[in-house]
Amino acid sequence: MTITLIAAVDTNYGIGDSNNNLLYKIPNDLQRFKEITTNHKIIMGRKTWDSLPNKPLKNRINYVLTRDERFRANGAMPLNSLDEIKYIAENEEIFIIGGAELYHQTIDMADKMYLTYIFDSSKDAATYFPKFSYMDWNVDKSVLHVGDKYTPTYNHTTFSRRKKGE
Ligand SMILES: NC(=O)c1ccc[n+]([C@@H]2O[C@H](COP(=O)([O-])OP(=O)(O)OC[C@H]3O[C@@H](n4cnc5c(N)ncnc54)[C@H](OP(=O)(O)O)[C@@H]3O)[C@@H](O)[C@H]2O)c1
User: What's the pLDDT at 106?
Assistant: First the structure.
């Protein structure tokens, strides 16, 4: 079982605005998100599902976490509790793709994280990725992408949870 979080955060850990949208749409980062998650199960909160312009996300099994037991959506499987996430992750790597509520509730059960650190804080964030201790994580990979006049500088960082004794 591997539970993986994938998110793009600004310098204050902001991830979304007050209209339920992403703070940034960096084409190379969105492409990376697609490559990493394709052919896997992805799990999102109901508000993130609502925010998707094109849904379901193609070539992935889309799950939506909601407390509404009557929730139905074309192309998505509803989940009503966090325990169900552990169940569907039993034999494979699954991806928690947001939003803030989901990240906050699942970071302690996560084994791995793909974070995009965007070196900018000029957007008005309304939702945030949880602060976490770097002591709990190893950095497996870190790649800096220098920005230009259209795109801020950002860093793709892959973390795996540090095992006891490491
Ligand atoms: N930067 C990024 O990487 C990134 C990625 C994804 C999303 N986002 C942004 O994040 C924002 C949305 O985040 P959010 O925190 O407002 O919402 P969210 O986490 O996407 O969804 C919250 C909803 O999930 C359901 N939920 C949460 N915990 C649950 C639990 N324990 N059991 C059952 N259902 C549960 C509830 O749905 P019901 O109300 O239906 O019960 C709740 O209202 C948007 O702006 C989006 O664009 C950013």
Answer: 97
